[in-house]
Amino acid sequence: MTRRFDWVPLSADVLPLVVEVEKTAYSHPWTVGHFSDTMNAGHHTQVLLGEALPGDVGLPTLADGRVLIGYLVAMQILDEVHLLNITVAPALQRQGWGRVLLDGLALWARTQQAQWLWLEVRPSNAPALAAYRQRGFAEVGRRRDYYPLDNTRREDAIVMSLNLKVSA
């Protein structure tokens, strides 16, 4: 079944749902403060809202009945865009929504005349790595001890980039 969806900027009325999804998706989630700071800084924040379908259970839902599919936060500096957060609601993962978010981000970045798209990803996040590679991202480096694992251990980040001029 096909789900209709809309892109909307992150706003105060959607923020509680975003934070709810963030808590279910990550061991070290962003807080309301993190998202508020990005909105106040003018970063690119987009939310993917979709129609509710029969069988949808436990999805964060707005008062108008739309469900939160996913969201992203990106920061532009000159001709580069850095993806800071991209998340699909756990119940909707592995259905192609991450690719929709990535493609939407790349399209927006091109409209901003960006030439490069950058991101970090955990080496242990095989589904995300595969999705990024499928979309043309290449590994260009590592950041040592970038992500927290627990109170004492950390995990590296793989730094990836996409040349937007080549992948157009």
From TrEMBL:
Highest taxon, organism lineage: Bacteria
Keywords tagged on the record: Acyltransferase, Cytoplasm, Ribonucleoprotein, Ribosomal protein, Transferase
Gene3D superfamilies, alphabetized: 3.40.630.30
UniProt catalytic activity: N-terminal L-alanyl-[ribosomal protein bS18] + acetyl-CoA = N-terminal N(alpha)-acetyl-L-alanyl-[ribosomal protein bS18] + CoA + H(+)
Residue numbers binding acetyl-CoA: N125
A GO term for molecular function: protein-N-terminal-alanine acetyltransferase activity
Span of domain N-acetyltransferase: 5-165
Gene Ontology terms: cellular component: ribosome
Active site: E120 (proton acceptor), Y132 (proton donor)
InterPro entries listed in its UniProt record: AcTrfase_RimI/Ard1, Acyl_CoA_acyltransferase, GNAT_dom, MshD_Acetyltransferase, RimI
Subcellular location: Cytoplasm
EC number(s) per entry: 2.3.1.266
Class of the enzyme per the UniProt entry, highest EC level: transferase
Family matches, as PANTHER family: [RIBOSOMAL PROTEIN BS18]-ALANINE N-ACETYLTRANSFERASE, L-AMINO ACID N-ACETYLTRANSFERASE
Entry similarity comment: Belongs to the acetyltransferase family. RimI subfamily.
Functional note: Acetylates the N-terminal alanine of ribosomal protein bS18.
Protein name: [Ribosomal protein bS18]-alanine N-acetyltransferase
